[in-house]
Model the fold of this input.
Amino acid sequence: MAWDDNLQGPARDFAASDAERLRALAGPGTGKTFALLRRTARLLEEGVDPREILVVTFARTAAEDLKQALARLGEDVQLTARTLHSLCFAILNREGVLHITGRTPRILLEFERDHLLQDLSGPLPGGLRVRRKLTFAFEAAWARLQTDDPGEPVAGLDQAFQDALLDALRWYGAMLIGEVVPLALSYLRHNPNAPELAAHTQVLVDEYQDLNRAEQGVIDLLSEHGHLAVIGDDDQSIYGFKCANPDGIRTFDQTHPGTVDVQLTECRRCPKRVVRMAQTLIQRNPGRVRGPLFPRDQNPEGEIHNVQWTSIAAEANGIARFVRQAVDSGVDPGQCLILANSREIGYAIRDAVLATGVPIRSFFREEAVQTEAAQEALTLLTLLGDPADRVALRCWLAFRSTTRREAPYRRLLTQARAQGSDVASVLGQLDQRTVAIPYTAEILERWRTLTVRLADLAPLADGLGHLVNALFPVQAAGDAADELTALRSIATGALAECQTVERLQEVVRYRLAQPEVPLQTPYARVMSFHKSKGLTAEVVVLAGLVEGLIPRIDPDALPGEQQEALEEQRRLFFVGMTRTTRVLVLSSYSELDDGTVHHLQIGHGKRFGRAFRTLTSRFVAELGRDLPRAVRGEDWLPE
Done:
């Protein structure tokens, strides 16, 4: 098939352009992935060496889908298509790149990071929550290019904390997830003969609005001697927590002189009413550059429901009944998508849907290792693959203890540093009684348990499938509380590309740090609004739509920061509602108990006795005339 078969309008303009700098502003459901595919196909048909084409995608699945689609078109698929983070991680993994800084490209997961943060010694500020915020500010400075030396102290932040954190990262041989791209950028900036800088004559970037300044800097360097085409939508910039900002795509033409623009504004995915509501909502944000979104004539009108429940439990049970009825009427469970801006709300809905017999899975940040049982199983896999992993050993020694054994561990750590060895060596000396350290009996016993477990698992290393089954065993059939389900799924999915335990633990850990939601499933899915990026479903439910959850505004933030947060969360709502192809349910509740309000940290509403009255999110009221009147849950879906 020729690249331009049945291709017309703005999509063809984007695919056919020879501009050295090209920007496509593409709204949801307007065919940006299709346009990106056809542009890639044109380059290949015109004889561009596939090895000179770099396609940067938002997700691994998108990269694989692109390669498969090109194969169906009969094109050579030996091009580089991957996420920017995985590309930077590969650059840093090459021998010698990090040698000068003494860093190791071993990513810390959140639970591992927390262990290190609590272990930091010295007169440091605050508890764990404060240290998490400081760590985020530390990473944010590199992402925003507030410093030219990523991984080094940042002016304006607590110096003692930064020194202690950097010292710990170097000693443990680990990196924060936010260091990967800035360190790759630093390498490319300071090494003009780096082979990566001359490797690609064509660079194509999807979801450009989700890149922060450091990531944009990497793209500019990789495309400096070639053509650069970016595609994205400032109305779908929703990753402020990693310092992405819509200004990156809004000002692209100013930072890249000579830019040619293409706009894709006809939505082929969403019902007409949803498109009109979405446009009414998003046009409240100032500074937008993409033109108004409008529906294709063939799109259905759509089915919209606006429902308010009395509580989280009532909402969960009501949504579960609705999903059950939809499946009974012929909707595939995989075409049901539920979005909630809170893990607790999502889990309540997941469990209620499971109780009706509909298969469903939840997808939240690092959900696969939320329990200590899962963390322990992953730690065993890590130590099997790399027995010298200092972070994993630290975590293992803290498990199954309410005190985390911090004081005894610090004694071991002090001894290890004094000897110029590591904690494992000191534990071995304790076991052989060649050294004595007070109050370490419990932590020594924990280490002995580890050596026995590793010895039992070692014979399985030659059969990775058996090892995965041993580490992540299946619990009772139908048990919704199976703590290892998600982790077992990730490990099983990684087997095809792994030949050794070392490689298996690397792949599993990377997929935990950079998780993705499957595009097609035989089960319903519940997740955060952020996770829904790139997904489409026939039935979409937006749950927990109350003030304080969406939008959630930090009352201590400056007025300008609060406005930015409001606009980004309006974009988040816009992304969530435009996932649907037929049915959209807007679900809120009117009352919460005091404990839930405190746990979810909801700051809006009014207390009545032990109850806390909540208000429907302001974003619902901003949807315009196509929004149906709200109904009570018991009237919409009777028991």
